[in-house]
Write a structure and sequence with these properties.
CATH architecture of the largest domain: 3-Layer(aba) Sandwich
GO molecular function: NAD+ binding; prephenate dehydrogenase (NAD+) activity; prephenate dehydrogenase (NADP+) activity
CATH topology of the largest domain: Rossmann fold
Bound molecules: 1,4-dihydronicotinamide adenine dinucleotide, 3-(4-hydroxy-phenyl)pyruvic acid
Pfam family, one: PDH_N
Distance between the termini: 27 Å
Radius of gyration: 21 Å
Strand content: 5-15%
Enzyme class: oxidoreductase
Shape: globular
Largest sheet: 6 strands, parallel
Strand order of the largest sheet: 3-2-1-4-5-6
Number of helices: 12
Family: Belongs to the prephenate/arogenate dehydrogenase family.
Number of domains: 2
Catalytic activity: prephenate + NAD(+) = 3-(4-hydroxyphenyl)pyruvate + CO2 + NADH
Order of helices and strands: EHEHEHEHEHEEEHEHHHHHH
Number of strands: 9
Length: about 300
């Protein structure tokens, strides 16, 4: 499917009348802020199972209405955005299905995309358009207070419309993310999950592992780790502070792709382990030279 254009909409016209965001955490609240601040939607409301999150979202003025009642939030919405952990999608899909009117667009922000098609798709009535999405932008923080409107600026947003997805719905969701500041890329859900397994999921798993390993060290070494934690290790601790429920759900719902890439990673790690053991300096240096070139290539591509 070719990328959706933005011919049907202009930068000044409101794109949506009423947007209902389910899950007003880091991503939901960032999108709610962007939709309002950048004039993308007339009214943004939210549903969250946490009454505290609803109260906070109202107190911060992020949404016009906040409720724990899904039906109240979804009534009259032309766009519904699911921004809850991926593991909740089946239950949320089942709950929202009967509440959706023909013509409504449903999208999500989940970090795994085959799960959206599998868990949300079957619950949607005919005439409701599903356009799964993943803003590749975030932080290690959670909750409505952690969000900010500019989170998506200069970042990618990947959309994974199923075959035969409604073209107009795809155009509108594409335009929403474009106006929020992102560059939209369209790909197949399976491909998305394989790419993100290496670029996002494995790095988080490595961070969770290394910080766990450091914290299992004997007490005296551990205190040194904290005292001298700088550079690389400090970056790992930031990533390892990411939301435990969200990341549990990512790994459980992208199991095959993560296990496959983990297998390859383990083999490559073992090769480096051997090189260190046998003093193969040339092999180590060659490897590090290649990875340095990759990093520089990424930076150059960003600046181009
Ligand atoms: N945190 C990040 O950096 C990024 C996260 N994502 C995806 O965004 C989604 C949300 O993540 P965050 O905003 O970080 O999480 P968060 O923990 O900040 O917010 C999640 C919200 O969903 C609510 N919630 C949970 N289960 C619910 C249910 N069954 N019904 C209604 N509300 C429910 C929680 O009360 C909470 O307010 C996840 O699917 C995640 O994979 C995507 C890109 C980046
Ligand atoms: O905080 C970071 O470094 C991230 O990597 C944020 C992030 C987390 C999950 C996603 O699906 C996308 C982006």
């Amino acid at each position: 499917m070719p990328p959706a254009g933005s011919s049907a909409v202009t930068d000044t016209a409101l794109l949506f009348d009423r947007v209902a965001i389910v899950g007003i955490g880091l991503i939901g609240s960032s999108l709610a802020r962007a939709l309002t601040e950048y004039g993308i939607a007339r009214k943004v409301v939210c549903a969250d199972r946490s009454a505290d999150a609803c109260a906070k979202a109202l107190e911060l003025g992020i949404v016009a209405e906040a409720t724990t009642d899904l039906a109240a939030a979804l009534a009259g919405a032309d766009l519904v955005v699911l921004a809850t952990p991926v593991g909740s999608f089946a239950a949320v899909g089942e709950a929202i299905g009967p509440l959706l009117k023909k013509g409504t667009i449903v999208t999500d922000v989940g970090s795994v995309k085959q799960a959206t098609l599998r868990d949300i798709g079957p619950h949607l009535p005919d005439g409701v358009h599903l356009i799964p999405g993943h803003p590749v932008a975030g932080t290690e923080h959670s909750g409505p207070e952690a969000g900010f409107a500019s989170l998506f600026q200069g970042r990618w947003c990947i959309l994974t419309p199923p075959p035969g997805a409604d073209r107009h719905a795809l155009e509108r969701v594409t335009e929403m993310w474009r106006r929020a500041g992102s560059t939209v890329e369209i790909m197949d859900a399976n491909h998305h999950d394989r790419v993100l397994a290496i670029t996002s999921h494995l790095p988080h798993l490595i961070a969770y592992t290394i910080v766990g390993t450091a914290s299992d060290l004997e007490e005296d070494t551990k205190s040194e780790v904290i005292k001298f934690s700088a550079g690389g290790f400090r970056d790992f601790t930031r990533i390892a502070a990411s939301d435990p429920v969200m990341w549990r759900d990512v790994f459980l719902n992208n199991r095959e792709a993560v296990l496959e890439i983990l297998q390859r990673f383990t083999e490559d790690l073992t090769a480096l382990q051997r090189a260190i053991r046998w003093g193969e300096g040339e092999q180590l240096q060659d490897h590090f030279t290649k990875t340095r070139a990759i990093r520089r290539g990424i930076i150059d591509a960003k600046q181009a």
